[in-house]
Amino acid sequence: MASKPTLIFVPGAWFPATAWTKLTTILATAGYKCVPVSLPSSTTGLPTATFLDDVQAVAAAVRDETSAGADVVVICHSYGGMPAQSILMDLDKPAVAAGGRVLGFAMIASGFTMTGMSFLGGLGGVPPPSWRADMETGFAELVADPMALFFHDLSEAEGAEWVGKLGKQSLRALSEGGEHAYAGWKDVPCWYLAATEDQALPVEAQKFFVKMSRDAGGDITLKEIKSGHSPMLSRPEETAEFVREAVDDFVKKGGMVKGE
């Protein structure tokens, strides 16, 4: 029996890699190797951290697995979808022909990267109402209550604990780096988990993103979950089932690689 693909987990802006722990614990018990990635832009506390730093952090984790012959599925949350998808700009067919390959993306309350466009560029150059660009500190500063924004469907105690774990988010990573952005979702199949009670990225916007990507030729399977922006914390069992179903589908399809 072929080995199960390795699962690479990419968090969103402000979020630490430990936000995946509930989910990875469930999936590890089911026999999956799980590799959470820490994004430099939200964990180093440095305003100089770039989008390219984030892309390279994800790519390094993926290459560690594919170079050892393992296939990979990348699970990404929120902003994390952008550096995750962009790794396929460089992980082309020659780079992985002798090893494993990226089979697909499992996206959670995320977006679809546009080649050549920064995160803020995709928003028209203007931050959403939930955060502002602090040009003095170089960080993206949350102005909305993070508890309400990200964790409203957790208990008050657990939500407060996660609010305390949020890091400083480099503004540079969100506003620059478009030259490193790549629409990797066009190269491999994707499953998308839309959070219907999301206060950070309304479900209507999530479904609109899915429609646009399908219209552009993406192979996107849409699922829904009754949760806020962080279902890996509030609905870990259901989110794990979504990941398992996505992985099974990707394995059946065999993945695709740019250039094939």
TrEMBL record:
The keyword Phosphoprotein does not apply. Residues 7-241 form the AB hydrolase-1 domain. GO terms for molecular function: hydrolase activity. SUPFAM superfamilies: alpha/beta-Hydrolases. The keyword Ligase does not apply. Pfam families: Abhydrolase_6. Keywords: Hydrolase. This is Alpha/beta hydrolase fold-1. It comes from Lasiosphaeris hirsuta. The lineage of its organism: Eukaryota, Fungi, Dikarya, Ascomycota, Pezizomycotina.
